[in-house]
Amino acid sequence: MTAAELVSTVRIAEVYRALTGAQARRAGPDSWRGPAKWRGGDGLNVSMDDSRGVWRDFVTGDGGGVLDLIMRVRGGTRQDAVRWLADITGATLDCRAPSSSSRPEYAEVQRRRRDVPYFADAARFMAEGALELLSSTDPKRAAHTTLLAALRVAPEAEYRAWLDERPRWAAALVSAGRARARRLQMGLASYLFSEEANAARNPD
After folding, report:
1. What is the domain partition of the chain in residue ranges?
2. Per-residue pLDDT tens for 88-110?
3. Are 119 and 170 in contact (CB under 8 A)?
4. End-to-end CA distance of the chain
5. 113, 157 in Cβ contact below 8 A?
6. Do residues 25 and 196 make contact, with C-beta atoms less than 8 angstroms apart?
7. Which of 2, 32, 72, 203 has the most beta carbons within 10 angstroms of its beta carbon?
8. Which H, E and C letters describe 34-45, residue by residue?
């Protein structure tokens, strides 16, 4: 297993719990909030997104992926973070680096994997919206129900199929998914900060 494959198998909220001993609070289907234990923080100022494998500390501005979180809490290098993650998951690492000729292809594969959650979110939103508008007897419903089933079972395979058959649509859905994720993150942060501010002004 490569380091990239290892990272893709874990949920960042579970890595956070292993690092800090704290259980994050659910803030959405795949999002969590927790305190920055490593700097003595006690507010829910750290956001985590399991679907994208990213985190952000809204107080300090720190953030990044799974390995960045491990390095922020434990220190050390990226290689140290990979070894620690392998140890706690019981994974066996393939330490061979991609050859120079395969690096561009490897980078493209990793980029596409990062795009899958955005594609799946936007495609799901599109299909569910269409099903709400179409009548129960409309034959077009079949395509949307098929898409939803494919996204539940194998979103990465569905994304690859769209890239091969409808690359412009695939790119548009990824862009839409990214925009939806940003809006959700900003809205959630605004709401949680306002709740914390209200609690500070009106303590029980």
Report:
1. 3-89, 103-201
2. 887 777 655 555 554 565 566 66
3. yes
4. 51
5. no
6. no
7. 32
8. ECCHHHCCCCCC
Tokens 């501005």 identify what position? 61
Q: Do the Cβ atoms of 39 and 28 come closer than 8 Å?
A: no
CB 44 within 8 A of CB 193: no
CA distance linking residue 54 with residue 69, whole number of Å? 9
CA dist., res. 138 & res. 142, Å (int): 8
Q: Which of 29, 33, 76 is nearest to 58 (CA)?
A: 33
The CATH number of domain 3-89 is 3.90.580.10: yes
Model confidence, pTM: 0.49
Q: How would you class 136 by CB atoms within 10 Å of its CB: exposed for 0-12, middle for 13-18, buried for 19 or more?
A: exposed
Asked if 15 contacts 1 with a C-beta cutoff of 8 angstroms, the reply is no
- Token reading at 141: 């419903």
Each residue of 128-151: pLDDT tens digit? 999 999 999 999 999 999 989 888
**Across the beta sheet with 25-26, what order do the strands follow?**
25-26, 31-34, 46-49, 54-57, 63-65
- What is the longest distance spanned by two Cα atoms in the chain? 63
